[in-house]
Amino acid sequence: MGLSSILLLQAPPIPSLSSSTHFCCHSSSLPPPCAISKLQRRPQLFPSASPPSRGWNLSRKRCALAARAAAGGSAAEALRRILESPGIHQGPACFDALSGRLVERAGFPLCFMSGFSVSAARLGLPDVGLISYGEMADQGRQITQAVSIPIIGDGDNGYGNAMNVKRTVKGFIQAGFAGIIIEDQVSPKACGHTRGRKVVSREEAVMHIKAAIDARRESGSDIVIVARTDSRQAVSLEESLKRSRAFADAGADVLFIDALASREEMKAFCEISPLLPKMANMLEGGGKTPILNPVELEEIGFKIVSYPLSLIGVSIRAMEDALAAIKSGRVPPPGSLPSFDEIKDTLGFNDYYEEEKRYSISPSQPSYQRVYSPGMSSAYNTRLTTAERPEQSQRADDPSDPVVEVVTPYVYDNFNSGDRSRQSGMWSRSLRLKITGRNGLEKLDVRIPAGFLEGMAGVIPGLGGVNIMQMLEDASIEGGPESGKILLDFNDAMGDRIQVFVE
Questions:
Q1: Do the domain assignments include residue 463?
Q2: How many other C-beta atoms are found inside a 10 Å radius of the C-beta of residue 106?
Q3: What residue numbers bound the domain in which 108 lies?
Q4: What CA–CA distance (Å, rounded) separates 408 from 389?
Q5: Which residues partner with 174 through β-bridges?
Q6: Structurally, how many domains does the chain consist of?
Q7: Which GO terms describe its molecular function (predicted)?
Q8: Where would I find the H helices in 220-279?
Q9: Would you say residue 96 lies in a domain?
Q10: pLDDT for 54-76, tens place per residue?
Q11: I need a surface site. Which of 48, 97, 152, 360 has the fewest CB within 10 A?
């Protein structure tokens, strides 16, 4: 069990910043908002001083899930404990199950699912509102099932009006998200750092946040509602601050203004509703917001910070470099390409093999029988047991060795039909079946017991409507079945030539 799991198991049970605690801000019969600040602090779930061990595996994930259950249960509760703990918490943005697993393996306490990156990775399209609610929920479900750390999902603008927002929140809850970001852009929405941003009215934006909170209550969930506004670029800084205050009054858990343009704007944002956590977005590579280190962000007043483009960006560059190397006749250098063993370790092959051993059974070859009665379509019996083939039981058992089934035909001589009884000699002979395509190329050339031919008729393409058994009986009546004699020679419905010879 890793250090993070031990900390979870040892953490004392204390009140969490649940939705019910947050609602006390709006009830005269419950404690005032300042009561939130008096909650006992928990230790960080994944201390940054503890480097992650390589080989994050299935058993460790199970331990982490068990520890989370012992510490309070849901992913949302785990996220709330992170928000209550001291310091600032970094969350790189993933886009699929593998990138989410790598974030967890690196030791981060939480992860974001980036709509920008999911649109790029899943659709190969820009983040301009083309990806749908269903695609985002499905992608999120794959991610949350692959990790044990809380994931904050990008709910965009809820994909419509307030009723759509409620459906989106409920769907994200079912997908396993710990938190959801709801923004106030009009449809179609787009990345907040791109041009042409437009937002709905302040009143409608507030109703969307209230709808999200209602959906949470109706679902019996504690999912964290992150209220985002894009009005800084669409309208003004003053409008974005007013909207953030309104979102806090509506019951949002975390506030987020995207595309703040300076340190001063970031400080002004963190001064409003000081009891609520603030989210920063460090858009790498040329966004509108200054890139600050975690210490600087914490000093300003932020609680969580996302890095939306790092993983998708380096993935694009790495794939381009690898493709250029392959095109030039080389392979990517060892420094940029993990070994096959490292790749298998990252994906959990070795852990799978270890766990698989728990359910292994005796490697001895089991006995089995297959019996075809005369009433079935094929006139043969098949039996094979280890008693009849002792060499099978004597060989060294190796799970990797192929198991070869030997089929032995049995001839029936007790047909009631006089015609059939006359052909008992034919049924015991071996035949050569040859099929030549209409293009002159040989498709099949095998030797089979005569009794198998009826069964073969059911699997050879183009034999529909051809009574092979009657043709075989008619052919065998005309003289003795000398070796090499052609019994059948005809073209099937597909134009292939089918020939049957006596061996």
A1: yes
A2: 13
A3: 72-311
A4: 12
A5: none
A6: 2
A7: catalytic activity
A8: 231-234, 237-250, 263-271
A9: yes
A10: 444 555 555 555 555 545 579 99
A11: 360
